[in-house]
Amino acid sequence: MHSSLPYFAISRRSFLKTTSAAAVFAASPFARAARSPASERITVGIIGWGMQGPNNTRGFLAQPDCQVVAACDLDPKKLAAAAGTINTHYGNTDCKAYHDYREMIARDDIDAIMIAIPDHWHAIVATEATRRKKDIYGEKPLAKTIAEQQAIVRAVEQSKIIWQTGSWQRSVANFHKAAEIVRNGLIGTVTHVEVGLPGGHHDFPGTLPAFDKRLAALGGKLPSPAEIVPGTPAWDLAVTAPPEGFDYDLWLGPSKMEPYIDVRVYQNWRWNSNTGGGQLLDWIGHHGDIAHWGLGFDLSGPSEVEAFGNFPPANAIWNTATKYTVECTYRKEVTGYANDVTMTIAGGSSAIPMGTKWIGSDGWVWVDRSGLDASNPEWLKGDTLPDNLRKVRLIESHQHQRNFLDSVKSRTPTITPVEVAHHSTIPGHLGLISMLVGRRLHWDVKKEQILNDPEASALLTRPYRAPWKLSA
Ligand SMILES: NC(=O)c1ccc[n+]([C@@H]2O[C@H](COP(=O)([O-])OP(=O)(O)OC[C@H]3O[C@@H](n4cnc5c(N)ncnc54)[C@H](O)[C@@H]3O)[C@@H](O)[C@H]2O)c1
Q1: Which of 106, 144, 218, 337 is deepest in the core (most CB within 10 A)?
Q2: How far apart are CA 347 and CA 270, in angstroms?
Q3: Residue 256 forms part of a structural domain
Q4: Smallest CA separation from ligand 1 atom 34, residue
């Protein structure tokens, strides 16, 4: 908090106890007008300057009532780029750079933080930040395991901080409209939902060509990272020393120590189960989140989950499922819905296209980043449904970072609060566990426990490498 700039400092802290003053401020026409005085800006620290961190940060930089005052990335090159971009934007040198997130979070003059680091780090950083009473904009999926997600939910609830998840599709008109069509019963009662996600592995950072060049020494057909396992000449060429100045030990954090292989670090950490959850966990917080939104299952979940996947060898460089199908059953006794609802989550399926499709007794709706479609073309006209059809109105947000900042001021929930992110991703986590143990899981939605299956239950959590532990 700015000690010399008391207005917002004092009011934000008091917002934790009372919401009325905050609500007045958020509603004020001045809240969105020209740049707020420095003393009234929400101060933000950002953690992670990889693929998503810069996108989120640009969203914050565009807002007149916040100031990004600190940047953290354990990679010195990324950190320099982060601080450089932020300082250039403001035309000053005020944004301070941090290698260690703990130092940044310890600052009292930072109100909120943005976390865009790999999934294996989410829970540790988020729980530490709640302990420091920071409001948090945190990336999806909420965490790497269900147990870590539960710890984050508990920590957020106890500390009464504001949480926004990076499931930004909720702030996009097409997704909002699709969910409202379903929630307003226009397709009747939903019986089935299809959630189409990508399959395979994608070389996001484009590090594969250089990797292949290294392997070319082997001659013959080059193996892919999904085929390379320890004890082979390809593995020996794949393993290198980490780049100069890159703190690989810190990057691995709580995950198991493994040799450094460049194609499983930046962005491609998604394709190794030590750090990520493959396409399923990368996308469940988007299209799975939208599926729940339309159904009104934001705080509910499936009672049964059965999944099948094609996996590379477990010790391959990229070892996450390349193709998968997760079948979920939502029981009406649990959800309170009119009937049971089944949901198929498919990755890399030619039968189920990308996006979310709800199928009901009287029609269907499909939505994806590429468009919106429905059984009745009338519903597609205009940005929103006509007023007479909008008996249920879902919370509206047109910009995800803006929605977070508004909530920070008003102390009211964001469009994607922590419990929602937790429930949105549970079908993905359970799907992965079902694939790994090779059988159907029975899930107690209320108690959040897998029933009668100790082997599967053990996968709700994961061991941490010392000295890392959750702050909660
Ligand atoms: N909402 C979206 O649309 C969206 C899109 C992409 C990624 N994401 C999410 O964002 C997160 C980051 O993904 P990414 O693709 O940007 O990854 P990335 O590998 O491109 O970037 C992560 C950055 O975090 C840094 N980092 C890692 N551990 C750190 C730590 N402990 N402290 C400080 N810095 C650390 C790395 O050096 C790297 O620069 C993931 O959770 C991912 O699922 C969300």
Answers
A1: 144
A2: 15
A3: yes
A4: 73
- Tell me, in angstroms, the distance from the centre of ligand 1 to residue 147's CA: 21
Which CATH number fits the domain that encloses residue 359? 3.30.360.10
Query: Measured from the CB, is residue 194 less than 6 Å from ligand 1?
Result: no
Indicate which residue's Cα is closest to atom 37 of ligand 1: 75
Question: Which are the contacts of 113, defined by CB distance < 8 A and separation ≥ 6?
Answer: 44, 45, 46, 47, 104, 105, 129, 134, 135, 136, 137
Question: Which of these three, 170, 185, 206, is where a domain ends?
Answer: 170
Secondary structure element (H or E) that encloses residue 363, with its range? strand 363-368
Look up residue 193 and give its two tokens. Answer: 């939902």
DSSP output for 28-41: SGGGGSSPPPGGGS
User: CA-CA distance, 144 to 239, in Å (whole number)?
Assistant: 25
Closest ligand 1 atom, residue 75 Cα: 37
Residue nearest to atom 20 of ligand 1 (CA): 50
Residue 399 zone, left/alpha/beta (φ > 0; ψ -120 to 50; rest) = beta
Q: What is the pLDDT of residues 233-251, one digit of tens each?
A: 999 999 999 999 999 999 9
User: What are 145-165's pLDDT values in tens digits?
Assistant: 999 999 999 999 999 999 999
Question: Are residues 341 and 321 both part of a single domain?
Answer: yes
Q: What is the pTM of this model?
A: 0.93
Residue 446 lies in domain: 172-392+423-472
Of 240, 232, 244, nearest in space to 213 by CA: 240
Q: Which atom of ligand 1 is nearest to the CA of 168?
A: 1
Q: Domain containing 67 — which CATH number?
A: 3.40.50.720
**Helix, strand, or coil (residue 243):** coil
pLDDT at 32: 42
